[in-house]
Structures are given as structure tokens and as C-alpha cells.
Design brief:
The protein has 346 residues and is α/β, with parallel strands linked by helices. Helices cover 38% and strands 23% of the residues. A 6-stranded mixed β-sheet has the order 5-4-3-6-7-12, with helices on both faces.
């Protein structure tokens, strides 16, 4: 299976101009029709301007619309990977463990804890080069969202789909996330494996500090990011289309608080750093700065190393449509009046 990509994907944003073109054409068409109405009755205007054709104008605009779309795709340079190779790179394996419990919907970090964490992780992935990344989500249990990989595009795609509903068991099992992370790294020893745990730290399920010590013994460094307020805030939920707050079995509003102590102990046990997040700075830049100082190891990965441009078909389509647009005039030709290509009978 070949890998498809655009060499210049930023040019695809130009496709947003196409709906604007349609709106402008419609507005211009309405203006022209109103101007013709001011000349007189429709039947009289048709007799005075027998060569006028609204269908031709619309058809020519449609052709020009398709040409512009094809040209935008051409300059974005669609490509297919043509050569699959095993390549070796120097890098670090990074596994992100992201808390997706309901408490991560609290809004003491704007717009909410989980959304802000996902935004920061997306930027982190954009900065990765030769490193491998894996993604784990956890609440009452831990699950692999994406195994260790250099496919950053897929990593961002899976990251964007993360939400609390994807984990059936609620809670915060940080220890389970560490245990799954330890088993998710590539086999082999060396100080080139690290985990980043992003959570509010309200652990209710296991002993994460003991698991962090096991990870440290296996040469895995764990960094923790505490996200939330130590003072505590309610957890918003949607009920009947309205915003309410999560309540316990006794009907009391659940208050979620950041537990910095346990996150600091995890980081210390696994020779990592603890950072407290804020709305303006999640803390991933500081953590990644520490990761870049780690000893890198040679890693093998399979990837496409050669790509072939596939814009030719779009160029042919654009030229063909331009030719059709050139030979079709906006006004009717009296010599070809009997050829009713643009007149339809209902």
C-alpha cells in the first residue's frame, strides 16, 4: 500500500476561497438580473437581447471553478510514496499517558483541562523529529491509543479523537498507565525511554509511586504534569442539553482538586521532573527540553523515502476545462442558433 501525501499542504487552505467565489458569483448574478428587470418586462428584454444566455454564464463559471480547484491541488503537489525502506535514526522513545477521567473536563484550565492538554500535545508532536511517540489514555484503567511509532500524523489524528467517553471505567489509575507504558516501549535497555503523564493526580485505584520505582529500575524516566487547581472546582456535565455539575451518590457536587504531592513523588521516584500546568503554559516545553538532553539510541523504522508527484492528471483536467471554457461564449452565436446545447426542455 502506497502512502499518499501533499508536499505543500498549506496551499490547500486556498480551497476556502472557492465558497467565497460562489457567493460572489451569485450576488453578481442577482445584480445583473435586477438591472435587466429595470430595463423592462422579461419577454421584451429577451427580444431586445436575443443573444443573452444565463445558462452559458453559469456553465462557464462552473468550469472556471473546477479549474481553480484543480490548480490549487496541483500547487499542493499530491504525491505517492514509491519506495519503502528500513531507516535508522537517533532519537528517544516518548510515551504520553493522558488522563481522560471526567475530572479532566473541569474548567479551571481554559477551555478545560483535557482540551488544553490535547492542544499542547499537538504542538509537542509537531516539534518531534527523530523520536518515537506512543499514546496511552487512562481513567479507571489504562488503554493503548496508539503504539510506539514515528507516524506523527496518525498520532495527532488519534489525539484529536480522545474524550472521556472512550474509557468505560471511570477513576484515575495512574499506576495502571505506568504499567502499560512500561510494556509498550520497544525491547532493549538504555536511558532513551521516557513517559509524560498528564493528569490532575487524583489517584484512587493503585500505588503509582511503587510503579514509578519499577519503571526507574527498567531505565524509564517519568515526567509528570499536574493540570488543575489545588483549591478544587466542580466538574461540568451535560444533562438534557443543559450544563450541570457531576454529583456523587448522595447528591453532593463533586469537587476535583489537583494532587501535586503524588505527582511530585512519582517524578522523583522515576528520576523525572514535575511541572504544574496553567492556561497559558501546560509545561510540555520544559519537559521536552529535558527529554532532548537524554542519551539517544539508534532506532529502526519503516518509512517511505521517495515520493512521486501525481499532479499530472489534475493538470490535464485543468487544461481540458480551460479549452472548453475558451470555445464556449457567454452570448449565443446567431450562426449556431439552431444548436440548442444549453436549452433544456422540462
Amino acid at each position: 500500500m502506497q502512502l499518499f501525501r501533499f508536499a505543500n499542504p498549506d496551499f490547500l487552505y486556498l480551497l476556502l476561497l472557492l465558497p467565497v467565489m460562489v457567493i460572489l458569483w451569485i450576488l453578481n448574478d442577482i445584480r445583473k438580473k435586477q438591472a435587466l428587470k429595470r430595463l423592462g418586462e422579461t419577454e421584451l428584454v429577451d427580444r431586445l437581447l436575443p443573444e443573452l444566455s444565463g445558462i452559458r454564464s453559469a456553465f462557464k463559471f462552473f468550469l472556471q471553478f473546477l479549474v481553480i480547484a484543480a490548480v490549487i491541488i496541483i500547487i499542493a503537489r499530491p504525491q505517492f510514496g514509491s519506495k519503502l525502506e528500513e531507516v535508522k535514526k537517533q532519537g528517544v522513545e516518548v510515551i504520553i499517558a493522558l488522563d481522560v477521567s471526567n475530572s479532566m473536563l473541569a474548567q479551571d484550565i481554559q477551555p478545560d483541562r483535557l482540551t488544553r492538554a490535547k492542544q499542547a500535545l499537538t504542538r509537542l508532536i509537531d516539534n518531534l523529529d527523530n523520536d518515537k511517540i506512543g499514546l496511552i489514555v487512562f481513567a479507571g484503567d489504562a488503554y493503548t491509543q496508539i503504539p510506539i511509532t514515528t507516524d506523527y500524523v496518525s498520532a495527532k489524528m488519534f489525539l484529536s479523537a480522545i474524550n472521556p467517553e472512550m474509557v468505560p471505567k471511570q477513576g484515575t489509575a495512574i499506576g495502571a498507565a505506568i504499567d502499560l507504558g512500561m510494556r509498550s516501549f520497544s525491547p532493549g535497555e538504555g536511558k532513551s525511554k521516557t513517559m509524560i503523564i498528564i493528569t490532575d493526580g487524583e489517584n484512587h485505584e493503585d500505588d503509582p509511586v511503587a510503579k514509578a520505582s519499577e519503571a526507574a529500575a527498567a531505565g524509564i524516566v517519568i515526567h509528570t504534569i499536574g493540570i488543575g487547581s489545588p483549591d478544587g472546582v466542580p466538574v461540568p456535565v451535560m444533562r438534557g442539553g443543559k450544563i450541570d455539575y457531576l454529583k456523587d451518590v448522595d447528591g453532593n457536587t463533586v469537587i476535583t482538586k489537583l494532587d501535586e504531592d503524588i505527582l511530585k513523588r512519582i517524578a522523583i521516584s522515576a528520576e523525572g521532573n514535575y511541572v504544574r500546568a496553567s492556561s497559558s503554559n501546560i509545561g510540555l516545553d520544559e519537559i521536552y527540553g529535558e527529554i532532548k538532553k537524554m542519551k539517544t539510541q539508534e532506532m529502526e523504522s519503516t518509512m517511505y523515502t521517495e515520493y512521486n508527484d501525481q499532479f499530472q492528471i489534475f493538470a490535464v483536467i485543468a487544461l481540458f476545462l480551460l479549452f472548453i471554457d475558451f470555445i464556449i461564449m457567454e452570448r449565443k452565436n446567431r450562426k449556431l442558433a439552431n444548436i440548442r446545447l444549453f436549452k433544456f426542455r422540462i
